[in-house]
Design goal:
heterodimer, A: alpha/beta, Rossmann fold, five-stranded parallel beta sheet, two-stranded antiparallel ribbon, 7 strands, 21% strand, globular, B: alpha+beta, Ubiquitin-like (UB roll), Alpha-Beta Plaits, 2 domains, five-stranded mixed beta sheet, three-stranded antiparallel beta sheet, 16% strand
Chain lengths: 180, 238
């Protein structure tokens, strides 16, 4: 059987979900026999490939770069998993939402409390422009599976991936569905 | 008191006349989810999670305030109820800012547990993300309105068990808030006896002991029912 083309993506999150993915420890060796890792912050691939079977997406959609990446990965992937609370709910990344729109959040940080030469981080093409509201992944693209947790612990990640490898729709137990 | 016989989820059960459906269901190990119900205080029927279907009634009825009657046929987990409960939970999660990962009550929260048990694995509605205050003017306790679901368990525990009635609800609809005394800072509410019953009653991390950080706020909610039982029935062993 052909190996599943597997990718992981890091949007607006702290990378904790990816660290938790590494907590799969020796099961990663088993996983490596079954999937081909084609894109991930854990490897050196510059472009998201055209044809991906399963992708774990960590983080909320917080800026234009995240938004473009979300659309790109959706177009190229058969099965998209919202990976961790930031992707599922917005979580910590969305803590800025109650404080106002992008400029209202940036102003006190970069202008009112800036040092000698206060300016907004607006280097075009280098610093991605913040969206006014941080969004959970499913409010930007359709999502096939939700894997909550901050971070989701390794057994949860394994449960979902194992079901997919076995050709089943992933089912999490009640204990594995907790946010936080 | 007479005994009535009714059917809950295809199971024939008997109940004392006047007993609530919730009470009867729990006595018979039939699980109906609740959030505003708290053993030891009166019912508010505020959260609507315990809605059940009663054959012959087109409306859904809250099990916590519906009395068992002879021949009643009750369903507690129809697809319609399951979907409505999920929707109610999604509305709770969108109305305020519930962020489990940074909450004092993480892993000790009834809202978080219900989301998991009722299959609310994501929220389909837009989050409102309101800007809400946190009052830490009290010496020992704090209230974070971001995490309040307006279940009024604190209001009832304070009024009915402690007898202080420091807590109440002000405002209407989405602008409702729990308040202390005449909407004064908690630290200035002179009726407060600092007993902490409200903190134990709170199902989420809205009411907390100061100095507790993420996941540190364990709550002893059964303590309140114990107090009430001790007073009314003179039973001092939990």
């Amino acid at each position: 059987m052909d190996k599943l083309k597997f990718a992981t993506v890091w949007l607006g999150g702290c990378s904790g979900c990816h660290m938790s993915f590494l907590d799969l420890d020796e099961w990663l060796i088993e996983l490596a026999d079954r999937v081909e890792l084609v894109y991930s912050p854990l490897m050196d691939a510059k472009k998201f490939p055209e044809d991906v079977d399963v992708v774990l997406v960590e983080g909320a959609v917080a800026n234009q770069e995240n938004e473009e990446m979300a659309h790109r990965l959706r177009k190229a992937s058969r099965y998209v998993i919202a990976f961790g609370d930031c992707a599922v709910t917005g979580n910590v990344t969305a803590l800025r939402n109650p404080l106002g729109l992008a400029l209202e959040v940036l102003r006190p940080v970069y202008l009112e409390n800036g040092d000698a030469n206060p300016r907004l981080p607006d280097e075009k093409g280098i610093v991605p422009v913040l969206l006014d509201r941080v969004l959970p992944l499913h409010q930007v693209i359709p999502v096939d599976c939700y894997l909550p947790g901050c971070p989701p612990d390794a057994p949860r990640i394994r449960a979902v991936l194992q079901d997919l490898l076995d050709g089943k729709v992933p089912q999490l137990s009640v204990e594995q569905r907790y946010f936080g | 008191m007479s005994v009535v016989t009714l059917t809950i989820d295809e199971k024939i059960v008997s109940a004392q006349e006047g007993q609530t459906l919730l009470d009867v269901a729990r006595e018979n190990a039939i699980d109906i989810p609740t959030l505003c119900h708290l053993d030891g205080v009166s019912e508010a029927a505020a959260c609507r999670l315990c809605l059940v279907e009663v054959v012959g009634t087109s409306r859904l009825l809250p099990a916590c305030v519906t009395r068992a009657a002879e021949g009643m046929v009750v369903h507690t987990t129809t697809p319609k109820l399951v979907e409505y409960r999920r929707m109610i939970l999604e509305l709770f999660f969108t109305e305020r800012n519930h962020v489990c990962s940074v909450c004092v009550a993480n892993s000790a929260c009834e809202l978080q547990a219900l989301a998991a048990s009722q299959g609310m694995i994501h929220v389909r509605l837009d989050y409102l993300h309101p800007h809400l205050p946190v009052d830490t003017s009290h010496q020992q306790f704090g209230i974070d309105h971001n995490r309040c679901i307006l279940c009024t368990r604190c209001v009832r525990a304070c009024d009915e068990i402690e007898g202080a009635h420091t807590w109440d609800v002000a405002g209407r609809g989405i602008h409702s808030r729990v308040i202390t005394d005449l909407a004064q800072p908690w630290g200035e509410a002179t009726s407060c006896t600092s007993c902490g019953k409200c903190v134990q009653a709170c199902p989420t991390g809205a009411l907390f002991r100061q100095g507790s950080t993420v996941a540190e706020m364990q709550k002893d909610r059964e303590q309140l029912a114990f107090l009430v039982r001790a007073r009314k029935e003179k039973q001092w062993i939990s």
